[in-house]
Amino acid sequence: MSQPKRLTEVSELRNFASYCFEGQQQSYEELHRRLREFRIDIDLSRFQTLDPFSDTYIKEQLKFYEELTGKRYGLANEATDVNVEQSRYRPYPYGTGSNKVVGAHLAAIGKLIEHMPVDPPAKVLDMGPGWGNTTIALAQTGYQVSALDIERRFIDLINLRAQDAHVDVITKVGAFDQAHMLGEKFDCALFYESFHHTPYHNELLANLINNCLTVDGRLYFVGEPILDHNPVPWGLRLDPMSVYSICQFGWFELGFSTDYFYEVLRRQGYECDRIQFTELTDANQFTARKRHPRSTYEPGEHFQSRQNEAHWNKPEQEVDFQFTKGFAELRVNPPVGTTRAQLKVSNFSPLDKQVVIKTDIDTRDIMLEANGSQDVVLDLTETCETLSIDTDSWSPKKLGLSADERELGVAVHRIELS
User: Fold this and answer.
1) In this predicted model, what pLDDT tens digit does every residue of 202-251 receive, in sequence order?
2) What b/e readout covers 199-215, taking b as 16+ CB neighbours within 10 angstroms?
């Protein structure tokens, strides 16, 4: 197989998009075959020194969009040419004629429904549902669904499909920032492959949280390009499919780094869990909920669900601890009046280990004996946001103890704040 052709100049991208569009006219398989012929390496260094929460950063992303498309961004650019009557009985993905595209799409929606953070008959706001596949499936499942989309033809299509399915759905033509105009409070706001179309995502979430969600309402993101190794905190994606969609159709195709996405939610007072599917990345899910004060943190239940989940190994089976990978942090939200943290750490390696544990106002530097445990108490304030545990990692396989290849730090048991 030949190496993909590397594109490094913006001036090359419109010809690339035209070439791929010709392929799409033949079939989805031909489109994807042509996309695989290219690798896009446009310099993004201008974004790496900017504050991703600043107006300047947004302006630079909009400027980059103009360079790619030759036009200014506006909501009208998100328009989709939809044949409503034709799509009534054969909406996307069926019209692609690709069993692979159809199968992946149905599998992703199946996972979306299986892991919904609220149960029927909860009220769900489907944000940017497009063809309405999620809207109709959720309504048929028993949810009370409202759908908001900028494209009138999509809303007309959803109304017809709801009528055919004999389900009640509330619909509104409008931009994401008009969700409050529905005049409802929802138990869950769903973004399925739609959140990444707005550069004003901070304002969008603030509006949803303050005006559209119930007190314990959830934000549910499925199939969004939120990546551990995104090249910038957020910005236009440069994979071939995204660049094709930007240049050919004018859509705003963003990607987010996981750290930035979690920080966006943290600033809104929300915390986030995620579920990843190795063979079905289009179904990867992030569920955000309001951060409530918590005095107890259990292994597995809370350790790995925070922003720094990459620092924790998966929970052990049928034991009361969870291994760090060396350095690890736990996001905490202490109740009012909290003054101390208490935890137990264990060292299952055959070597003594130095362990440093910190809160916002206290540090404990301890030496854990091989195969030993120790209870640790630290001072902290009610405004403390993280508890960190730092030690060298070790591998049972490298030490010849077992076939376990994991990089392990120390085992952390239940943590209590009081």
Assistant:
1) 999 999 999 999 999 999 999 999 998 899 999 999 999 999 999 999 99
2) bebbebbebbbeebbee
Question: Is the model's pLDDT at 307 over the cut of 70?
Answer: no
Query: By three-state DSSP, how is residue 32 classified?
Result: helix
- pLDDT band at 77, cuts 50/70/90? confident
Neighbour order of strands in the sheet with 213-222: 169-173, 144-149, 123-127, 186-192, 213-222, 285-290, 270-275
* Segments of the chain assigned to CATH 2.60.120: 296-417
Q: Check whether 306 has a pLDDT greater than 60.
A: no
Buried b (16+ CB within 10 A) or exposed e, 109-124: bebbeeebbbeeebbb
- Distance, in Å, from the CA atom of 138 to the CA atom of 148, rounded to the nearest integer, reads 14
Start and end residues for every CATH 3.40.50.150 domain found in the chain:
55-290
By residue count, the chain amounts to 418
DSSP 335: P
Q: Of 416, 281, 394, 300, give the one whose Cα is nearest residue 347.
A: 394
What does pTM read for this prediction? 0.81
Q: Is the pLDDT of residue 347 over 90?
A: yes
CATH T-level topology, domain 296-417: Jelly Rolls (2.60.120)
Question: CA 226 to CA 257: how far, in whole Å?
Answer: 6
3-state SS assignment for residue 81 = coil
Measured between alpha carbons, how far is 250 from 66 in angstroms, rounded to an integer? 10
User: CB of 72 within 8 A of CB of 66?
Assistant: yes
Q: In the CATH scheme, what is the homologous superfamily, with its name and number, of domain 55-290?
A: Vaccinia Virus protein VP39 (3.40.50.150)
The pLDDT of residue 38 is 95
What pLDDT shows up at residue 303?
62
Sign of CA dihedral 240, 242, 246, 250: positive
